[in-house]
From TrEMBL, chain A:
Coiled coil: none annotated. This is Methionine--tRNA ligase, cytoplasmic. Keywords: Aminoacyl-tRNA synthetase, ATP-binding, Cytoplasm, Ligase, Nucleotide-binding, Nucleus, Protein biosynthesis, RNA-binding, tRNA-binding. It comes from the Eukaryota. Residues 846-902 form the WHEP-TRS domain. It comes from Prolemur simus. One of its GO terms (molecular function) is ATP binding. The keyword Nucleotide-binding applies. Residues 207-226 are annotated as: Disordered. CDD domains: Anticodon_Ia_Met, GST_C_MetRS_N, MetRS_core, MetRS_RNA.
From TrEMBL, chain B:
Coiled coil: none annotated. The keyword Cell inner membrane does not apply. The gene is EEF1E1. SUPFAM superfamilies: GST C-terminal domain-like. GO terms for cellular component: aminoacyl-tRNA synthetase multienzyme complex; cytoplasm; nucleus. It comes from Prolemur simus. This is Eukaryotic translation elongation factor 1 epsilon 1. Keywords: Membrane, Transmembrane, Transmembrane helix. Residues 50-149 form the GST C-terminal domain. The chain crosses the membrane at residues 127-146.
């Protein structure tokens, strides 16, 4: 018999291992065929080449690298019967493991991804195997002895798991199973034949020819909270969680004293965070705020909780024509305009509690010095070109028109309102004179083309260095997919020289003869603003900005800013040959819309930074909601109704309710002292679940998936609410000694979860976090450090402070009036919103009462229906029932179910 | 056809008298059978093979080693390929493949009727209407004319 295998296909591993064991029963010849050869006549499918292993029987079909069937053949030959459990594993392998695994291998071998990117898709499957092994306490998958299932799964997993980095330590049972099989002779031989000692790279040529597998488990991220599915936990996971918990605050490292200035330290993690510089004379709207400053703030706060050396900076971008024009309008000098608006910006961000280490500005001597230095170095190295430029000049306004003062039809896509520098529709960069039907935005007259001498950055000459740098930087980094995509499409189109000077006065002067009356174009020097702002903060700024080996640079922005940060500035910096720190992780958001449209200052639509404070809604609520809908991966929309819903369901009834109850039980039942805790197996399992969710939170935030990590916080508090609800400490406290002890344990564990939540919440809602920590009297180091384990930070005997509700309910009328106020048309000044009603958090009694009501009302409806009563009467009672259910859901902190029921025809 | 209904139908055609209850797991509604004397079984083909053995009709799983392997292969084909079909183009390719495979055969394994034929028939059942519209007759006609019960 002859066995055909395809060169470098991962599916060969189990086939060969199985064949090795079956040898002796059948004479076997193994031949390798190239991946292009199609051996099975009847399948037309080959998106993928078809790889028969036994053409005698036309035995195979192929989807990616499946293998189970082929081994089945050899095993049957060698007399192994397949029992139910083996069958079950084989089916699981084909339907669950393979899709996940093929995605992981593709990411690893073809795309060069590492770490969580690779492990993520398969983690669930690996945990499943581990749990079955440890639950059954069998050495093998289907029992005491090796079976077909073991060989098939081993072979499938080997290419990935042979690298210990992808064999998670916590999965002990999987580990020892895998190692046992790997030492067997047929398996070893198969591994050598297929991987040829090159590890997973041996599979690369084969995998490259495969279509990119879509990751399994494509659970769409929605704005709605998902039903959490409790993961099954192994005994080990639980034991580890308990050990960590018991160590308590002792395991916290010493708190590092705050430094001023913050500087990088060799051997430590140094995180430099920038947020795109807002243009000075626009008041930022909510979309601007979530797009950069707020997102970067969450990450900066998180980074400090991890005790990484963190410097977070931002500032106003002040040069340019827009400022000159605004100054003319207001009868001030450009400098006065900048001074005025800089303060407005700073105030808005202060109100939003943005934790800048520096909030600077670009109109400083440092800016001039550093920009001119970079320019000089580029000039000496031959990266600056000089050319005559045809430029639009408005004779009516008697000046050259800056790009943003010209509007016209996009030459690429025909969009009517394209700007002079970039088209908002197709995103392509435009040379203003290429615009069709140009118009001066100030006077609406048609500008004429005049020529003027200008300097150009020779991007084509720098392109190779840029690509080299990107090749080193991008793999394994956390650049968001949209940023990667934008950069890739720019490089694909080829770079062109870009003009870096302008006929203006308000800007950084160009230090070159013949250019005395010109300044640098803002996009050349705005990104240098980060450097000069740091230089104004500390004279040792170069320790941050010329230290790529030790500093990790995270830059936050909306996606329209990607080309300047990911391409133009890196080109300038690479051209200087001055070892600048370049962006390691470029984090770009999509756009945030307002209700159903766009934010528009001119039409008065949307909420702008300075107005948010007048709504009577606290900054932390704004922060929470904006982060909850952060346009991460796709555009999202701000909606007043949704904000009300999220405040009332997630904050008030879920998070606030849990934290408040936990604290209240300590005060009311235990005189304000945390009671003794005797953990039962159920409590230990809860500890492990919380730990798991906490680790998930860390994984997400390390990848700057800010919005997703917020879900983990809400999940933990949902677990907490359920835990209290099931254990009913308010009842047990009145019971026997054992009951009282149980009430104590539940209360103690709950209040410790509340303490953990206060720290996890800190990046998102700093004021609320501080309030909780004051209420619980959480010790200082525990407030400022977040480890990956859940610790008991409030031990028995700890005295807490006074507990009070954290959140207020948002009312429909209040939100409705805000919607009208900001909804468009003329921005009217409406009366101050009504005083926000304080709502006592729903207690267990209320919930119980509501549940009874729901049951009662449900019976009424059923009876009426059974009696075939009048339709209107039934409808009225159903409406009552639905209303009660809604109240109950709110009281329990559950998300509201929106019209899940059958639709009426 | 939901997996549970499919398995109930299979029970009937195998002549098993007592009806099992099935639960479903996850988004894809994978069937689960709780057996009396052991752990629960998960997965359509796993449960189907279990039922066949229960009915003492092992021949439906294939009689020679080769045939057993072929049955296994088509059972997997059913759950990994047929069940994941998502659009008309996929379906067209799938049916074309099957059609040309079956051109010189009576049943999937050749000359013997097996569990593979049953499950593939069930799997394709839901497409019958669209199949006729698309115009692929031969596969389905042959399957419809087999007396499955």
């Amino acid at each position: 018999m002859r066995l055909f295998v395809s060169e470098g296909a991962p599916g060969n591993l189990p086939v060969l291992a199985a064949a090795g064991r079956a040898r002796g029963r059948a004479e076997l010849l193994i031949s390798t065929v190239g991946p292009e050869e199609c051996m099975v006549p009847f399948l037309t499918r080959p998106k993928v080449p078809v790889l028969p292993c036994c053409p005698l029987f036309g035995l195979t079909y192929n989807h990616c690298f499946h293998c189970g069937v082929r081994n089945g053949y050899f095993f049957l030959l060698s007399g192994w019967e397949q029992d139910d459990i083996t069958n079950q594993w084989l089916e699981w392998e084909a339907t669950e493991l393979q899709p996940a695994l093929s995605a992981a291998l593709y990411y690893l071998a073809v795309q060069g991804k590492k770490g969580e990117d690779v492990l993520g898709p398969v983690r669930r499957a690996l945990t499943h195997i581990d749990h079955s092994l440890s639950r059954q306490n069998w050495p093998f998958l289907a029992g005491e002895t090796e079976s077909l299932a073991d060989i098939v799964l081993w072979g499938a997993l080997y290419p990935l798991l042979q690298d210990p980095a992808y064999l998670p330590e916590e999965l002990g049972a999987l580990r020892s199973w895998f190692q046992t099989l790997s030492t067997q002779e047929p398996c070893q031989r198969a591994a050598e034949t297929v991987l040829k000692q090159q590890g997973v790279l041996a599979l690369r040529p084969y995998l490259q020819k495969q279509p990119q597998p879509s990751p399994p488990d494509g659970r769409a991220v929605t704005n709605e909270p998902e039903e959490e599915e409790l993961a099954t936990l192994s005994e080990e996971e639980i034991a580890m969680a308990v050990t960590a918990w018991e160590k308590g605050v002792e395991s916290l490292p010493p708190l590092q004293p705050p430094q001023n200035p913050v500087l990088p330290v060799a051997g430590e993690r140094n995180v430099l965070i920038t947020s795109a510089l807002p243009y000075v004379n626009n008041v930022p709207h909510l979309g601007n705020i979530i797009g950069c400053v707020l997102s970067a703030d969450v990450f900066a706060r998180y980074s400090r909780l991890r005790q990484w050396n963190t410097l977070y900076l931002c500032g106003t971008d002040e040069y340019g024509t827009a400022t000159e024009t605004k100054a003319m309008e207001e009868g001030l000098t450009p400098q006065e305009i900048c001074d005025k608006y800089h303060v407005i910006h700073a105030d808005i961000y202060r109100w939003f509690n943005i934790s800048f280490d520096i909030f600077g500005r670009t109109t400083t001597p440092q800016q001039t010095k550093i920009t001119q230095d970079i320019f000089q170095r580029l000039l000496t190295r031959g990266f600056v070109l000089q050319d005559t430029v045809e430029q639009l000049r408005c004779e009516q306004c008697a000046r050259f028109l800056a790009d943003r003062f010209v509007e016209g039809v996009c030459p690429f896509c025909g969009y009517e309102e394209a700007r002079g520098d970039q088209c908002d529709k197709c995103g392509k960069l435009i040379n203003a004179i290429e615009l069709k039907k140009p118009q001066c935005k100030v006077c609406r007259s048609c500008p004429v083309v005049k020529s003027s001498q200008h300097l150009f950055l020779d991007l084509p000459k720098l392109e190779k260095r840029l690509e080299e740098w990107l090749g080193k930087t991008l793999p394994g980094s956390d650049w968001t997919p949209n940023a990667r995509f934008i950069i890739r499409s720019w490089l694909r189109d080829g770079l062109k020289p870009r003009c870096i000077t302008r006929d203006l006065k308000w800007g950084t002067p160009v230090p070159l003869e013949g250019f005395e009356d010109k300044v640098f174009y803002v996009w050349f020097d705005a990104t240098i603003g980060y450097l000069s702002i740091t230089a104004n903060y500390t004279d040792q700024w170069e320790r941050w900005w010329k230290n790529p080996e030790q500093v990790e640079l995270y830059q936050f922005m909306a996606k329209d800013n990607v080309p300047f940060h990911g391409l133009v500035f890196p080109c300038s910096a690479l051209g200087t040959e001055d070892n600048y720190t370049l962006v390691s992780h470029l984090i770009a958001t999509e756009y945030l819309n307002y209700e159903d449209g766009k934010f528009s200052k001119s039409r008065g639509v949307g909420v702008f930074g300075d107005m948010a404070q007048d709504t009577g809604i606290p900054a932390d609520i704004w922060r929470f909601y904006l982060l909850y809908i952060r346009p991460e991966g796709q555009d999202s929309a701000f909606s007043w109704t949704d904000m009300l819903l999220k405040n009332n369901s997630e904050l008030l009834n879920n998070l606030g309710n849990f934290i408040n109850r936990a604290g209240m039980f300590v005060s009311k039942f235990f005189g304000g002292y945390v009671p003794e805790m005797v953990l039962t197996p159920d409590d230990q399992r809860l500890l492990a679940h919380v730990t798991l969710e906490l680790q998930h939170y860390h994984q997400l935030l390390e990848k700057v998936r800010i919005r997703d990590a917020l879900r983990s916080i809400l999940t933990i508090s949902r677990h907490g609410n359920q835990y209290i609800q099931v254990n009913e400490p308010w009842k047990r406290i009145k019971g026997s000694e054992a009951d009282r002890q149980r009430a104590g344990t539940v209360t103690g564990l709950a209040v410790n979860i509340a303490a953990l939540l206060s720290v996890m919440l800190q990046p998102y809602m700093p004021t609320v976090s501080a309030t909780i920590q004051a209420q619980l009297q959480l010790p200082a180091p525990a407030c400022s450090i977040l480890l990956t384990n859940f610790l008991c930070t409030l031990p028995a005997g700890h005295q807490i402070g006074t507990v009070s509700p954290l959140f207020q309910k948002l009312e429909n009328d209040q939100i409705e009036s805000l919607r009208q106020r900001f909804g468009g048309g003329q921005a009217k000044v409406s009366p101050k919103p009504e005083v926000v009603e304080t709502v006592t958090t729903a207690g267990p009694q209320l919930i119980q009462a509501l549940m009874d009501e729901v049951t009662k009302q449900g019976n009424i409806v059923r009876e009426l229906k059974a009696q075939k009563a009048d339709k209107n009467q039934i409808a009225a009672e159903v409406a009552k029932l639905l209303d009660l259910k809604k109240q109950l859901a709110l009281a329990e902190g559950k998300p509201l179910e929106t019209s899940k029921g059958k639709k009426k025809k | 056809m939901a997996a549970a209904a499919e398995l109930t139908l299979l029970e009937k055609s195998l002549g098993l008298s007592k009806g099992n209850k099935y639960s479903a797991q996850g988004d894809r509604q994978i069937p689960v059978l709780q057996t009396n004397n052991g752990p629960s079984l998960t997965g359509l083909t796993t449960i189907a093979a279990h039922l066949v053995k229960q009915a003492n009709k092992e021949y439906l799983l294939g009689s020679t080693a080769e045939e057993k392997a072929i049955v296994q292969q088509w059972l997997e084909y059913r759950v990994t390929q047929v069940d994941k079909y998502s659009n008309k183009d996929d379906l067209r390719t799938l049916l074309k493949d099957l059609n040309s495979y079956l051109e010189d055969k009576v049943y999937l394994t050749g000359y013997n009727f097996t569990l593979a034929d049953i499950l593939l028939y069930y799997g394709l059942h839901r497409f019958i209407v669209s199949i006729i519209v698309i115009g692929f007759f031969s596969v389905i006609f042959r399957m419809i004319f087999f007396n499955l019960s």
